[in-house]
Design goal:
It is a single chain. With 412 residues, the chain is an alpha/beta fold. Helix content is 33%, strand content 24%. It contains 14 helices and 19 strands. The protein has an 8-stranded mixed β-sheet with strand order 12-11-8-13-16-17-18-19, sandwiched between helices. Helix 1 runs parallel beside helix 2. The longest helix has 16 residues.
Length: 412
Amino acid sequence: MTADGLLGKRVLLIISGGIAAYKSLFLIRLLKTRGCAVTGVLTKGGAEFVTPLSVGGLTGEKCYTDLFDLTDEAEMGHIELSRAADLVVVAPASADLMAKTANGLADDLASTLLLATDKRVLCAPAMNVRMWEHPATQRNIATLKGDGALFVGPEDGEMACGEYGPGRMAEPEAIVAAIDAALSGREIPQSPVTDGPLSGRHILVTAGPTHEPLDPVRYLANRSSGKQGYAIASACAALGAKVTLVSGPVGLTSPPGVNKIRVETARQMLKACEDALPADSAVMCAAVADYRPDIETPHKIKKERGGLSAITLAENPDILKTIAQLPADRRPALVVGFAAETDDVLGHAEAKRKRKGCDWIIANDVSPGTGIMGGDENAVTILSDEGQESWTLTSKQEVARRLAERIAAALA
């Protein structure tokens, strides 16, 4: 997927009620970074989860909520609003709003817009698994598809209510891919993608921190959130790759179409990576702890028993170096490492690339003032035998998208 299909386009985004409404804020950011204008519409239920202020702040435009607003009707009107966009996107699309649309009801702004539009409509359903599987919902979806509506998702997964099954709204990256396809006249991609530039390729990605236990309740760790690694796994899957994501302990949702392996320690991560081979490319994004406590006690260390005045450390295996220096018949064709540095970023990163033996190293400055470690944005420089390429501060999703496309080009 490239930004070309989105640049200069306008999406009318209708956000209906449901906990998945928070993902629509991320969707807006992704669309905006790719040059797509967004006009937001909130239903009454949607406004229970996100506010007009947050939607308007991200879109840079007024967020519309009321069908009977005299000012809005005088300035633009719901008919013009419904037709000024290139595509109407409903995310999340609740069972209620889809039922209204399927039956031609128009008792609020969102349902009126959907009835009045002359543009294609893309729905990203989100609801409880029982609601999704109910015959009434399935009848309504069949009607909407018969009327020409497009769909992306839902995904299988754990619900906010605790149940598991189909009903989770597609991730923002998948919705953006569907929007791009719809605007370009292509078929909406579903997970897994079978015709992307990484189709037939196996990409191994590591993400997050490792936790090195000292006792049953304490461990050594770092501040990695896993966001960049998860975004890379998602972006590679969106290009058709079979993706194995080896993840340390993080609080992130598994990307759709990705095989995630959960680990805790560096030694567990190395074994999972070796077991996942062969792979065409290994993207080692995890912030692996360099050291672990030499001894892990089976009980909680108590202060009154003498406590612990010093911790003896043992060196952890070097996962990037191990994978990069495998024999040719086992080594991935392209090994990509990451160098999170706080000083002399490029100097340290290039030295690391040569020392480890990887093909590319992605360098970034994670000193406290940057907000990159644990944040949603990143600024990176790719170092390779061909030289350096710097990308200015942008979203981690955008970094992942560009890196996935660069990997696809290199493997081609």
